[in-house]
Amino acid sequence: MGINDWPEQDRPRERLAREGPAALSNAELLAIFLRVGVRGRSAVQLGSHMLDHFGSLQALLHATPQEFSQVHGLGLAKYAQLQAVMELSRRAISEEFFRHALCSPDVVKTYLRGKFGLQAYESFVVLFVDVKNRLIDAQEMFRGTLTHTSVYPREVVMAALRRNASGVMLAHNHPSGMAEPSEADIRLTRSLSQALGLIDVRVLDHFVVAGTRVHSFAEHGQL
Fold first, then answer.
1. Which of 35, 92, 127, 154 has the maximal Cβ count within 10 Å?
2. What is the rounded CA–CA span in Å between residue 139 and residue 122?
3. How would you class 121 by CB atoms within 10 Å of its CB: exposed for 0-12, middle for 13-18, buried for 19 or more?
4. pLDDT tens profile 60-83
């Protein structure tokens, strides 16, 4: 039975309009994205099959084009559409983030979850702020493999000088899923704090992002 044959009150699109997106399951949200199913499977059943195939929503969203296309009924067109939706979401979060002073770690964490949440590679981002903790710029400065990123303090110092920043917040992701900082992360933070301190730029925090979890150095007394 196709979704159009369901009672109207049970159809995902109608339920979303009536109850809001939070009321829908992951499979139902995927069904709205897919629009149609395949022979023998409704869009909701196909969405459920996608989740079973990849094991989790995170794994589905991290899939490569080749992995995504292995599921019957999917292909590069659907992959491109999904990537476009996710990028629009990230940009919307960034727009909102840039409007606010960074007065709360929770504001920064929300932004970083959106920025790093679906990255399969490790990267290092620096948030530059003025004396009132208003965001001047957010820049990905270094990109590495899944396990290592080379970060050069001299380049961070030069970037802070160019922006006349009063402080910085550091952030990087752990695609492995472990939010706890490594000893190398702690040493790097100290090295950057010392280098930036020479030009009177404070390191306000360092965040490690792993999926939805974010570890704050400042909150754990590690600065």
1. 127
2. 14
3. exposed
4. 887 889 999 988 888 898 899 888
